[in-house]
Amino acid sequence: MSTGYNLRALWGVQNSLTITNSASQKTIAAPYVSEDGLITHDNLNWMWPNFTPMEMACRHCGQIYHWPEFMDRLQQVREDVGRSIHILSAHRCALHNARIGGAPLSQHLRLAADISLHGHKRQTLMTACKTAGFTGFGYYQTFLHIDLGRARHWYGGQKAKSLWQTP
Q: Which of 3, 31, 115, 142 is buried most deeply by CB count within 10 Å?
């Protein structure tokens, strides 16, 4: 028996995922479900052992944005910190991004990651993300936003700023 995730019940889709190519921006629907109804890393050529397609997909519709460079860097962060990383939000379809009040040009429309701070030292996590080559940083009280957009940073309020500026 293969291992994987039964996504039909979780995402409400039937036998395919929508995949967007990061270079061409073309979107296709690709089959992902094996005969036993499970998604496996083999079905998607998934190469990142510490992350699943499900956790990187849009929470609203299951759309996946395939960007190997981003995932390689995220995997490097995981290996550098030496502990699991809980992704709170990764790719978002435009509808989901709008519904949750995301920025209209959010990097989440491609691929970004909001990483829970639970179980992590803030500075260690941030340093690992910078070393891996991430360039966009949003510092919040409970999570760190990372992306590969233009170099910039921001704070999710005064409490977050105080938290991140305290060693």
A: 115
